[in-house]
């Protein structure tokens, strides 16, 4: 589905317990392929620095269920600066859209201290929009979100099922590469987030394996969970 020129996808989220995770993982891995970027069978580390405006509208828009909303984040994998991505995740009712653009380490370092001028001459639309967000709308770092992602892919219909484990928020820094970064787990031990992402429809073969109807769907936001955790413990 396209909306304003953007490709929209379904994204269903569920909390699952350790027993459900073991059973689901066994079934799903029998048909779907483990993400080729996974360095190990139990997944890879995803670490994101989220940005928000001076009035925390991304936080409150989510909590208030605003129909159309967006979040900006800078994302890295396994703590490495080899790949640094700026992403914008937009939500339109039941649909989501994710856009991304690459950043260099130098550009990241300047954005971290609020210097949006580094993107002033950017030609990529997403980078131009983020420049406006930082320079004109006052967007600044808000929280670091960290978790282990185990991802499976069903290429025929562009289906992706992920298990996100050990969701944690940073409580002492906004720097993704800070060697002294301190993380606090945000969910009870063993609780996992399952996400099912697909385009127009979920193939029946995948539906039978994931059995989304057997789990309670939740409006889960890792950003909100970890942002509220950071506010509770300590704000850098």
The total beta strand count reads 12
Q: What is the rounded distance between the termini?
A: 40 Å
Which descriptor suits the 3D outline?
globular
Instruction: Name the beta content range.
Output: 35-45%
Structure description:
This protein is an alpha+beta fold and 236 residues long. The protein is built from 6 helices and 12 strands. The strands form 2 sheets. An 8-stranded antiparallel beta barrel has the order 3-8-7-6-5-9-10-12, surrounded by 5 helices. It has a two-stranded antiparallel sheet with strand order 1-2. The radius of gyration is 18 Å and the shape is globular.
Quick overview of this protein structure:
With 236 residues, this protein is of the alpha+beta class. The chain is 24% helix and 39% strand.
Key phrases:
236 residues, alpha+beta, two-stranded antiparallel ribbon, 24% helix, 39% strand, globular
Give the secondary structure arrangement, pairings included.
Blueprint lengths: L1 E2 L2 E2 L1 E8 L1 H12 L3 E2 L9 E9 L4 H7 L4 E10 L2 E13 L2 E8 L2 H8 L12 H11 L4 E15 L4 E12 L12 E3 L6 E7 L5 H7 L11 H12 L3
Antiparallel strand pairs: 1-2, 3-8, 3-12, 4-9, 5-6, 5-9, 6-7, 7-8, 9-10, 10-11, 10-12
